[in-house]
Sequence to fold (255 residues):
Amino acid sequence: MSISEDLLKREDLRSLLFRDTWQNLIPAVFRDVPTYYDKGNAIASLGHCSRWSNRFAVAIQRHLPRGARVLDVCSGTHDIPLRLFTNDPTLQVHTVDRSEHMTAEGQRRARERNLTIHAGVCDAHVLPFADNSFDAVTLQFASRHLEIIKAFKEIHRVLKPGGIFCHNDMLRPASKIVEIPYLAFLRFSVWFTAMLFGSSAESKKCVGYFANAIRHFYTPHELAVLLEGVGFTGIESCDFLTGVLTYHISRKPKI
Ligand SMILES: C[S@@+](CC[C@H](N)C(=O)[O-])C[C@H]1O[C@@H](n2cnc3c(N)ncnc32)[C@H](O)[C@@H]1O
Fold:
């Protein structure tokens, strides 16, 4: 299936509106955030973040063979790898993230639990791995900051045929009745979190961005269409409040 004109135009608009923020401000935000990241996420997701990520990890686990080779893209503080390891210590886990600070905090958490995670610092749009390298790729709470079609194509490239792509994020709610109060809440809560935790001036400039990024993002159905357009099949999805939180699990077809 090809990606509709409408979604391609949205992707162009996202790049136009946010490219500067993605390149210049988001790296500064994630220099600030490692120590209060979990609390900030909990507030932005109406307190559901950790439980939802756990549910996502359980859903991934149902598809993963033991000893699978997994790549977590935009891994931050390694939230998903640490959850996956709890149930299967035989996994071989690689991560990439552009932030040295988030990666350092993730590595500290892995060491604390005596776990080995092979972490690299790089941009998610150009993954430093050969084609067909991984049984699973995971991407959680980051695609709002990415050129999503480009990133999904790259993930498709590094997955083995038959491998799974597991995506989890705060999407644009499909229902306006949810979207309007949710975005108002998000504007307030991001501002409140930035004040509470004494964020840097650069992070404070991003206060409006987080809600705007969701307003121009994709609903759960649109995200599934994008996944299909990039070549994924067998898409299963699960959402909370029509998209406030949504995960999709899809597969790169076997040849
Ligand atoms: C909200 S955090 C999510 C971290 C982790 N996946 C989680 O679930 O906790 C977003 C992460 O995406 C990373 N990121 C943003 N843009 C990126 C890019 N273009 N390439 C690689 N990492 C990026 C940030 O550095 C940050 O660590």
Residues 5-11+34-175+218-251 form a domain with the Rossmann fold fold (CATH 3.40.50.150). Residues 26, 30, 74-77, 79-80, 97-99, 102, 123-124, 140-142, 145-146 surround S-adenosylmethionine (CB under 6 Å). DSSP finds ten helices and seven strands in the chain.
